[in-house]
Amino acid sequence: MAQYVGVSTKTIRVYHAKGLLPEPPRDASGYRRYTAQDLVEVIKIRTLAESGMPLARIARLTAGSPGDLRSAAGAAEAELSARIDRLVETRGRLRELAAGNNPFLPGEVEQQLRRLHDLGFSDRWIALERDLWILAFATDPETAHRYFADQAEAQADPVLGRLYLDCDRAHDLSPDDPELDDLAARIVDASLARYPADELREQLAGAALPQLVQSSVNASSPAWERLDALIRSGLRRAVS
What we know:
This protein is mainly α and 240 residues long. 76% of the residues lie in helices and 0% in strands.
């Protein structure tokens, strides 16, 4: 049987074990005796298996109508196409990794993070931003894109960029350092000049994503935590 059909004897035994092919009775010498119809059934099973059809479906299909087979083949093709799409996407991500790119962030975000080195930001700040952008883009891509575009524009501005740099360098200050009060006042003034009062009120109301990002920032530095409190307090007074 195996030689006629071009499969191994182990494969024939699997077909028996799975209930795809009834096991024939043995003759007086203990050999199984297969018929021509058995050969036809094995050819059908092998052909369907080689086309990617799961063995669990094959028994039902070989006993069904041609329409059943066409329907199952269409479903199997759709599943295979979806699997191919996922594999192509995975290959693309692996190529990005091999090229040294960050697969977790849009390309423009990674480019901006690399530019921060030239602008004078610390490795600590850049690493923190990278993690926070990964979090933001994974949880709320639309909002993250909007915040990213706004921040990239601000960091490129000489005056606003200076405020970001001062925030970076405030990381190791004591929470009681008066520099924090001065920095908070400058940030409040810049925010009032840059954003409408309604937008600032909305930010202070605490949308989920900004709250999550800010809590992560505050947890990394007591000075940053106090700076955030001073900024919020100053903005609330200004827009209330």
